[in-house]
């Protein structure tokens, strides 16, 4: 099996897998089924669906696709070596030092390695055609021998069970992006991807269920479920010790947030904007690393838990548009890091007196555009507001009955 130091780097790849195959042999059968199965499991694969054999060098686009793929799957069928395009492709893959997994599809690995049978015939033809380019043919031979020496999968079946392939790939994946997969109803089993660090399911509007393995994943740091319109909750007892970012914004049926475990100390950003939740779990206080909590336009939110004051790292709280939220809990004076609370001017959220004991706290009010339609307003005093002149809305300039306007100091 090939090796590559880039597998453990922080690089973002365009593709997880590059598929190298002989189109005439496998495109409509094995490769098609493999590609579809990879995509369903969140493994982004690249395949060239064009007519490969044109007698030209491989395209710049294909070279870029190879370079931007984390792994390469080489589907070695009986006619693979007869394609100079495939051989050039293979040579480039090895030059890039990709981690390579050969699939011996209906061929004996030893025949590939020693170039017997159809592989021997293919190279006789190449030697005849490229008499003046013997070095090129020898480079192809060497590339084929090298890839045939890697451990891979020996498949006699044209439509095999791909479980072993998925297992090898999923174990190495750090990012799964299934965003805007309109037909995805249930997420994959994440136990098969123990090294996963980033999960993006944004815009999966048919998603109704997240696999229970997700909420006990130990390495996942970022989870984006924005605009999953049919998702109602997450599996219970969240114990995600590495999770730092959780976005549920726009999940319009998400009514219930499960309890957080004590291990979730790393979560620093929680976005519940525009969800119909009515309350937050009492275990919210376990999120001792939470710095940013966005509850904007949670119109059904009635209260915050009594454990809210335990969020000692919280810097930013947005409760604009939370029209049913009457007050914030007592104990805000214990939240020394709190820097900003965002409110709407037409909301009735009552702040506890303890909030005004926080020296660094700024309380900002959003004035809806409708409130700026005040044609008879004559006087306004902003002298003691912590505002710059540039922050005053332009709409004030259009009020026609001004008699006195006191700018901020």
Automatic annotation (TrEMBL):
<dbReference type="Pfam" id="PF23598">
    <property type="entry name" value="LRR_14"/>
</dbReference>
<dbReference type="InterPro" id="IPR055414">
    <property type="entry name" value="LRR_R13L4/SHOC2-like"/>
</dbReference>
<protein>
    <submittedName>
        <fullName>Resistance protein</fullName>
    </submittedName>
</protein>
<feature type="domain" description="TIR">
    <location>
        <begin position="13"/>
        <end position="148"/>
    </location>
</feature>
<dbReference type="InterPro" id="IPR044974">
    <property type="entry name" value="Disease_R_plants"/>
</dbReference>
<dbReference type="InterPro" id="IPR032675">
    <property type="entry name" value="LRR_dom_sf"/>
</dbReference>
<dbReference type="Pfam" id="PF00560">
    <property type="entry name" value="LRR_1"/>
</dbReference>
<dbReference type="Pfam" id="PF01582">
    <property type="entry name" value="TIR"/>
</dbReference>
<keyword id="KW-0677">Repeat</keyword>
<dbReference type="GO" id="GO:0006952">
    <property type="term" value="P:defense response"/>
</dbReference>
<dbReference type="GO" id="GO:0007165">
    <property type="term" value="P:signal transduction"/>
</dbReference>
<dbReference type="InterPro" id="IPR001611">
    <property type="entry name" value="Leu-rich_rpt"/>
</dbReference>
<dbReference type="InterPro" id="IPR035897">
    <property type="entry name" value="Toll_tir_struct_dom_sf"/>
</dbReference>
<keyword id="KW-0520">NAD</keyword>
<dbReference type="InterPro" id="IPR000157">
    <property type="entry name" value="TIR_dom"/>
</dbReference>
């Amino acid at each position: 099996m090939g090796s590559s130091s880039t597998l453990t780097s922080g690089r973002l790849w365009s593709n997880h897998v590059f598929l190298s195959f002989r189109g005439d042999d496998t495109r409509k059968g094995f490769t098609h089924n493999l590609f579809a199965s990879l995509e369903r499991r969140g493994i982004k694969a690249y395949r060239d669906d064009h007519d490969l054999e044109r007698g030209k060098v491989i395209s710049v686009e294909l070279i870029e696709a190879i370079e931007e793929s984390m792994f390469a799957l080489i589907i070695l069928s009986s006619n693979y070596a007869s394609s100079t395009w495939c051989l050039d492709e293979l040579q480039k893959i090895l030059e890039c030092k990709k981690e390579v997994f050969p699939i011996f599809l209906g061929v004996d690995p030893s025949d590939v390695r020693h170039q017997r049978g159809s592989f021997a015939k293919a190279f006789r033809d190449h030697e005849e055609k490229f008499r003046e380019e013997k070095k090129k043919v020898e480079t192809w031979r060497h590339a084929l021998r090298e890839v045939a020496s890697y451990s891979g999968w020996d498949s006699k079946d044209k439509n095999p069970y791909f479980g072993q392939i998925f297992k090898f790939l999923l174990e190495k994946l750090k990012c799964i992006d299934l965003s805007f997969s309109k037909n995805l109803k249930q997420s994959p089993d994440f136990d098969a991807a123990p090294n996963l660090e980033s999960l993006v399911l944004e815009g999966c509007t048919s998603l109704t269920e997240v696999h229970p393995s997700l909420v006990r994943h130990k390495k996942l740091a970022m989870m984006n479920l924005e605009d999953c319109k049919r998702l109602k909750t997450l599996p219970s007892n969240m114990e995600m010790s590495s999770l730092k970012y959780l976005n549920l914004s726009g999940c319009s049926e998400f009514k219930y947030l499960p309890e957080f475990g004590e291990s979730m100390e790393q979560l620093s950003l929680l976005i519940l904007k525009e969800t119909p939740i009515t309350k937050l779990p009492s275990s919210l206080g376990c999120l001792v690393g939470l710095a940013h909590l966005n509850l904007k336009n949670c119109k059904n939110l009635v209260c915050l838990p009594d454990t809210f004051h335990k969020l000692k790292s919280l810097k930013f709280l947005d409760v604009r548009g939370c029209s049913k939220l009457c007050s914030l809990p007592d104990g805000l004076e214990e939240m020394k890091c709190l820097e900003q609370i965002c409110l709407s001017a037409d909301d009735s959220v009552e702040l506890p007196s303890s909030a005004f004991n926080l020296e660094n706290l700024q309380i900002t009010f959003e004035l809806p555009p409708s409130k700026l339609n005040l044609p008879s307003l004559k006087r306004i005093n902003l002298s003691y507001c912590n505002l710059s002149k540039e922050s005053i809305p332009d709409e004030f300039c259009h009020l026609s009955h001004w008699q006195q306007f006191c700018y901020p100091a």
